[in-house]
Amino acid sequence: MRKRLKTKFLGIEVNLPLVLPAGIMDMSFSGLDISAKNGAGIVTSKSLTLEPRLGHKGPVVAEFESGLLNAVGLCNPGIVDGLTEINQFKERSDTPVIVSVFATNTDDFSKLTNHVNKSRGDFLELNLSCPNVFDEFGIPLAASKDEVFKIVKAVKEISRLPIIAKLSPNVYDIVEIALAAEKAGADALCMINTVGPGMLINTKMVKPVLFNKFGGLSGPCIKPIALKLIYQTYSALNIPIIGMGGVTIGEDAIEMIMAGATLVGVGTAVYYRGIEVFDKINREIIEFMDENNYDNLEDIPKLEKLK
Ligand SMILES: Cc1cc2nc3c(=O)[nH]c(=O)nc-3n(C[C@H](O)[C@H](O)[C@H](O)COP(=O)(O)O)c2cc1C
Question: Is 190 a known active-site residue?
Fold first, then answer.
């Protein structure tokens, strides 16, 4: 089975096409390890900041009919301890690791890059798009093509690793933002981050469910938005896309691939189907390939590009 799911991403052979997205498992080495052992072909760290962060007060995650609302607030151990966990993981596993980092300006992104350069990470992902720290940092950088260009360019000049820009769905024109990232030297894109922010209300308590009041949406409710943005971006750009947003079953992953994704992220579905979700979706992709006479992943057709 595994042979048929092999693919290439930025020059690396990847055994399985599913990616653990940033922030889904805890930051420890074991969170990455258990995902890789259960069928994730690439694993992503929690977004790391220069200093450790406690994140928001709880509740930070709430479930509703068609997804999750979260405002974790970038809780992470900081870049130094985070990279120690990643290095430990790489001592025992061949699975490629994407190191996700978050900052609000070029200087801090450059400092983070210098740390990551010394690590055993395989790719560097720039989280330009966290919607849950608005009170502290304002509008995400991914809302501005100029900011995206400036930061990606600065990081590209010093990064030892290929760069993935993680984009926000909460923009008017995704193509102009994606093109700015590509022009600045991004090697790939990861999209989408959570949608919104949105809000849920506890009607008995007459107050918002999340302590932070507002949070980003993920899971099945965002899949149509993700597919549309990935398709528009795939139509206009030449760099590969890690597509994510609501992928829960094999057919969702197939939709992502048809929309233009090279690899597919599975995040919120871990809460619904357990950590075995990666193996389950891998099997469901194979079933789809059997039913439709596709030998390999590359045989699955993409949609005709938008003109
Ligand atoms: C609890 C939670 C924490 C997240 N933390 C991060 C994060 O630290 N950095 C980041 O870039 N994305 C973060 N995300 C966004 C996911 O990586 C992903 O882009 C999004 O959830 C859409 O995929 P999904 O619907 O499969 O979950 C987080 C999502 C959730 C649900």
Answer: no
- Give the span between the Cα atoms of 297 and 295, in whole angstroms: 7
Best probe residue, ligand 1, of 20, 24, 25 (max atoms within 8 Å of C-beta): 24
Put simply, whether the predicted model's pTM sits higher than 0.85 gets the answer yes
45 touches ligand 1 (CB under 6 Å) = no
245-271 pLDDT, tens digit each: 999 999 999 999 999 999 999 999 999
Domain-wise residue ranges, the chain: 2-53+74-200+220-299
Nearest in space to 137 (alpha carbons), one of 65, 69, 49: 49
Please give the CATH topology (third level) of the domain spanning 2-53+74-200+220-299: TIM Barrel (3.20.20)
Helix (H) or strand (E) run with residue 112 in it = helix 106-117
| Mutational pocket test of ligand 1: of 60, 98, 268, the residue with most ligand atoms within 8 Å of the beta carbon | 268
